[in-house]
Amino acid sequence: MARPGLSKHRKFCRLSRALGCPLLARGALELLWEACYESGDDYVGTAEDIEAMVGWQGAPGKLTMALAEAGQPEGFGFIDPGQSVSAVPTYRVHDLWHHAPDYVAKRRKREMERTTREAPDQPVRRTAPNGEHWQGTPGDQTGLDRTPSPSPSPSPTEQSGSAAPTPGAPPASLERFVCGAQAPQSPTLLTFPTVGTGGSAWALTEAQVATWQALYPGTPILAAAQKALAWIEANPGRRKTASGMPRFLVNWLNREVDRGRTTTPAATSMKRLGPNDPEYYERARRAREEAS
Length: 292
Known about the structure:
The chain is mostly helical. Among the domains are: about 5-100, Orthogonal Bundle (Arc Repressor Mutant, subunit A), CATH 1.10.10; about 190-260, no CATH class. The chain has helices at about 10-20, 20-40, 45-55, 60-70, 95-100, 100-120, 155-160, 170-180, 205-215, 220-235, 245-260, 265-275, 280-290, and strands at about 45, 80, 90-95, 125, 135, 145, 190-195, 200-205. The chain has a 3-stranded antiparallel beta sheet. Helix 1 packs antiparallel against helix 4, helix 10 crosses helix 11 and helix 12 (about 265-275) packs antiparallel against helix 13 (about 280-290). The radius of gyration is 30 Å and the shape is rod-shaped. Mean pLDDT is about 75; it is low at about 125-130, about 135-150 and about 170-185.
């Protein structure tokens, strides 16, 4: 939403003259800002992206040029030209967060804090829909690189056939993990749907089940995990992040133990026999021996 006094500002008057109508100028700005508030990003892409975003029906490029030149001769207009991607100019909304409503700025701050809290503080590499690469820590917008990275010249070591790692680059295993190309080290037994920046699914592996089975010898780990998966699927609003799934399952196993849902076969047989049965005390003795 525009601040009061926008319709009298010289930049808005220039935009209105360029488009031939203040109604078109106001509508284009409101739709542009609304999209940025919703996405939490002041980057709006190419001229084609901008005009598709607001539903522009006029001559291609006319709206983008009018938005960019509305600030002339003093400075930038309503959008700032950025670096070109594959020789195509891209743009950002000029001073978006300086003029954004308080509720939008607070929501963006909460989202950045949540993203930083849930994701590990380590370098990650992501690819935007337009092919741009972002590398940095979660919640950090300074790592956005909108220029294609030039291919480095091969070093003498690489020319000889031995791969030399790039200084400061993340390990190859981390790169494969971020890009989703690294195969799991252990077979996956169950897949849990998740939320947040860590991905849409978390895999319970055979190795993890074996680790927990050693810690909970009297508990059928896989059966308990299947119950937890059914509960998560029945309660989509209570889904966890990928990084929070191990803690959730450990708490689930602890509750299973506390509720006494896991019993030994001998103890189960004792309950069926009852204290008046001659074999009751013999089986009770064997149950104590097995427990020790």
